[in-house]
Amino acid sequence: MVRWRPADATTIVTGASSGIGRELAAQLARRGATIVAVARRAERLQQLQADAAAAPGAIIPMAGDLTDPTFRQQIIDRVQSISPRLDLLVNNAGIGGIGPFAEATPQRLRQIMEVNFFAPVELTRLALPMLRVASHPVICNISSVLGHRGVPGKSEYCASKFAIHGWSDALRAELASSAIQVTLVSPSTTASEFFDVAIETESAQSQHRRSAMSPASVARQAIRAIEKRRDEIVLSPGGKLLVYLDRCCPWLANRLIARFG
Ligand SMILES: NC(=O)c1ccc[n+]([C@@H]2O[C@H](COP(=O)([O-])OP(=O)(O)OC[C@H]3O[C@@H](n4cnc5c(N)ncnc54)[C@H](OP(=O)(O)O)[C@@H]3O)[C@@H](O)[C@H]2O)c1
Fold first, then answer.
1. For the chain, what is the radius of gyration of the CA atoms?
2. What is the CA 37 to chain-centroid distance, rounded?
3. Are strands 138-142 and 199-200 parallel, antiparallel or unpaired?
4. What is the largest CA-CA distance in the chain?
5. Which stretches make up the Ketoreductase domain (predicted)?
6. Which of 63, 93, 105, 234 is the most exposed place for a label (fewest CB within 10 A)?
7. Which atom of ligand 1 is least distant from the CA of 218?
8. Among candidates 104, 95, 101, 190, which has minimal Cα distance to 150?
9. What kind and span of H or E run contains 254?
10. How distant, in Å, are the alpha carbons of 8, 99, 178, 193, 243 from that of 197?
């Protein structure tokens, strides 16, 4: 079986200023990859670069807003200045929204879909020509268990992750005759800044953060899935239980989520 190899790989990791994305970038740099690390907070990216200075790979900070089409093109231009090929694109940047749909604004839906769906999809469109010239490239989309099963209080977020899930499945099939693999990674609750910056309605404050995975563990498992060129992984026993219960016995999942979700 062909494996994806990080040594000397040219990669893009979005959302690299904190949480899962920061860990992904740091771990890939330790394995010898060059990472164009994308997020809005420039100082965080510079800190990541400094922390990874001794690693065999390299971090190249790229600060900007992924919802801006001009910035997305600048990311691709920057990669092209390093290498004619792109070996890995990790679409990780994302934001949450917590609280009932009926209490939320239309702007919340727009913002979540812009960051979690339109930005990664359009960045991928721009990246495809460079992925096509790599030998075993991977597009890794960081989705969520909530891209498999909807839960109350996170309707817009679930919708955005279902959209990424469906698009990933379709793109994987479209690219099946090429060398490009599409890997969908679905973490459960992870201890990051995600909940601090989620767009919340008032009644939603502080109903979050039960048991959480570490960003380092999520990143490790995502990189393993990339190396094995897996189609899809669901992380954590609770996440797997929810996804498979929903597939096998949706009526029971509906009842449990309505009661305890
Ligand atoms: N935490 C969880 O419980 C959990 C569970 C399942 C799935 N996930 C998914 O995992 C991914 C990473 O989340 P995380 O937990 O690591 O959250 P996080 O710590 O809040 O990281 C989110 C990253 O996205 C970046 N970002 C957000 N909006 C952006 C924009 N408009 N342009 C550029 N960068 C932007 C942020 O950087 P700046 O603010 O510097 O721009 C940050 O680096 C997300 O897709 C999330 O949906 C998270």
1. 18
2. 13
3. unpaired
4. 53
5. 9-188
6. 105
7. 10
8. 101
9. helix 250-260
10. 34, 13, 38, 7, 26
Best residue among 17, 38, 149 to mutate for probing ligand 1, ranked by most atoms within 8 Å of CB: 17
pLDDT digits (tens, 9 = 90+) for 20-63: 999 999 999 999 999 999 999 999 999 999 999 999 999 999 99
Q: Residue 210: what pLDDT? A: 62
Q: How far is the CA of 13 from the centre of ligand 1 (A)?
A: 11
- Atom in ligand 1 nearest the alpha carbon of residue 212: 3
**CB-defined site of ligand 1, < 6 Å:** 15-21, 39-41, 44, 65-67, 92-95, 115, 142, 144, 187, 189-190, 192-194, 197, 215
Higher pLDDT, 141 or 204: 141
Task: Report pLDDT digits (tens) over 133-188.
Answer: 999 999 999 999 999 999 999 999 999 999 999 999 999 999 999 999 999 999 99
How much of the chain, in percent, has pLDDT values that exceed 70?
96
**Ligand 1 mean position, distance from CA 238 (Å):** 21
User: Domain limits of the chain?
Assistant: 10-236
Distance between Cα 23 and ligand 1 center (Å): 12
Residue nearest to atom 44 of ligand 1 (CA): 94
CA of 22 to the centre of ligand 1 (A): 10
Which amino acid, one-letter code, is at 18? S
- Does domain 10-236 bear CATH number 3.40.50.720? yes
User: What residue type is assigned to position 208 of the chain?
Assistant: H
What are residue 63's DSSP bridge partners?
A: 39
Q: For the chain, how far is it from start to end, CA to CA, in angstroms?
A: 40
pLDDT level of residue 92 (50, 70, 90 thresholds): very high
